[in-house]
Specification:
The chain is mostly helical. Helices cover 66% and strands 0% of the residues. The longest helix has 40 residues, at 113-152. It is found in: Endomembrane system. Keywords: Membrane, Transmembrane, Transmembrane helix.
Amino acid sequence: MLFQHLRAILLGPVTVTIIIPVLIVTTVGTAAVDLGPAPGSLTLVAGSLLVAAGVAMLAWTISLFARSGAGTLSPQDPPRTLVIRGPYRHVRHPMFSGVLGIVLGEAIAARSLTLLAWFALFALFVAVMVSRVEEPRLARRFGNDYARYRDNVPRWLPRLLSWHASRPSGTD
């Protein structure tokens, strides 16, 4: 199982957050925005905090997939049970949110327009893929449990109070 997790992490998040940004910067450049020394320090700190938050979210959600879902983030070995714990009680796709946070944080820290363009392209890809592929697949796999979850937990903007499947819909 460890090998499956590592393979999925390397093929997914590592490719999107490290390999592709490095390829972009080394081939195209950063197209850095010169904001002067003080704003540059602020963007480095803000971007680094966003990267750290994204990494923490990614680690948390991967751990939940392994422990609660008995699976990995890979479509070839997905969770066997619907994961509705931790951040999944607030938003349906916190793993993607974590990865998007990392990519956006890199663009902000580097003050890079090319990395910002990569963020926008990847965010568009995720939005389309989630609505057209990921969520229909979850609906087929988990049926009514997923439908109830989908009806109570937003896709992207987190709800303030956590949702609990054991409670009637609409109560917190």
